[in-house]
Amino acid sequence: MSTAAEVVLEVRDLTREFDGVTVLDKFSFTLRKGEVLGLLGANGAGKTTAMNMLLGLTTPSSGSITVFGKDLAKHRIEILKRVNFSSAYTALPGNLYVWQNLAVFARIYGVPNAKKKIDELLELLEIGDLRKRVTGQLSAGESTRLNLCKAMLNDPDLLLLDEPTASLDPDIADKVRKVIQRVQKERGIAILYTSHNMKDIEEVCSHLIFLHKGKVVAEGTPEDIVAKSQQSTLEDVFIKIARTGDIEE
Amino acid sequence: MNFRIISALVMRYIFLYTRTPMRLVELVFWPMVDLLIWGYLTIYIKENTTGAFPAMISFLLGAMILWDVVFRAQQGVAVSFLEDVWTRNLLNIFVAPVRISEYLTATFAVGILRICVTVVIMCVVALLLYQFNVLVIGWPLMPFLANLLISGWALGMISTALILRWGQAAESLAWAVPFFIQPISAVFYPVGSIRPVWLQNVALAMPTTHVFEGMREVMQKGTFNWQSFSNACLLNLVFMAIAGWIFMSMLSLTKKRGLLTKFATQ
Ligand SMILES: Nc1ncnc2c1ncn2[C@@H]1O[C@H](COP(=O)(O)OP(=O)(O)O)[C@@H](O)[C@H]1O
Ligand SMILES: [Mg+2]
Asked: What is the atom index within ligand 1 of the atom nearest the CA of A214?
């Protein structure tokens, strides 16, 4: 990635404590236009906490978050117009039709030509035939893809994805990855991505950060990290860090 | 405030109510039960007493319908919020560029819509079954009705704040919020009937009390009491400010504790 690219997200010394326990410790990184940053780490490493702070859902204990050059705490609404989020753990209201849910969010985000945009996104994620289905009756894979449709409605410049492929079968996970990659390449958006699926990470991410108990233990391209840790695969690196808390012996 | 965003949020509730007609049952069922019970009781008392008293007592029906406005407005706000909690949609809304003021305004609008449905049905039934026409009370009722709506919104914000603070465990408490002030709101009886006497002062601090006192005067004497009306407006302003402040404090506390995402995804 060219370092001259526009900085989308700048995080400095982001720290969060819960009941005296530091869950994220002086976390700093820079995300530029066109980059896909993978956030890795065992369960409880602090990934979701970091994302929630980046979305303004959880207040940081200290540190600063700057998005599109603006302070998140002060310009949250303005920033959120150009950001979107999807996670396997949220859902769209189950009692509405798929098209109704997307229509509501298209209107919230002020999407021009909403109907056309919705149709395009549904086709892109290969769920065009679900338009008139009741959202609550979708399978996990279908509903994850619907969440991604919602997350792309406003053509975000920054996309935060918290385990977007959790609960997907390998086939659908592969399709979702391809879509994310395609959209990312076409529009050059910046993505922050967490996943426990190493294949996701290797295929989609240009940079990685490994977190362990809230601390950064490794950082770099997937190849660099594998080489540095003297392991053969990223999966081995993950296991090593999860067990020893370090990348090297 | 952005009207497009508010209308989008309201659209979601309209979709919801048209998609699941069972939701409409709730808007009709309880008010009907109330109306029947109070109506029959009124008839019974009327037929077993003599003098001027019975005419007055038929206003019980009116009071009942009007208290329902408070309750429906409160529910409109609380249910709209709970709907987002139940459907795990809260995070989608909170990561969208939706201001809290826009979100709350949308829940207020839903409150109005729910009330329109309920009040129209109740008025028609009251007219058909008991020949009680709420509209004979006429236009002076409207400003009071508007005040009840606002009190309902304020109570709704407090209910929502309770849920934000204590999670879904506080749901049943949230339903009960309007009933904390009902006994001292002089809905069915004048403030003077409230005992012990010091409690009357507390009652007078409620906007709803002035509304119901004022409405009784409209019904009985046909005069519009500007004092009651302006007291109600003023106290409603204070109520809205306090409720809004409680809501914002609870929201900020929830974010500080990192709990917004917790109970939104459970
Ligand atoms: N609201 C909260 N209150 C107390 N502890 C929390 C809260 N949210 C998260 N934690 C703790 O923070 C740690 C990191 O959690 P999380 O960010 O969800 O991890 P990850 O997403 O990497 O699996 C965990 O130990 C979790 O228990
Ligand atoms: Mg997580």
From this structure: 14
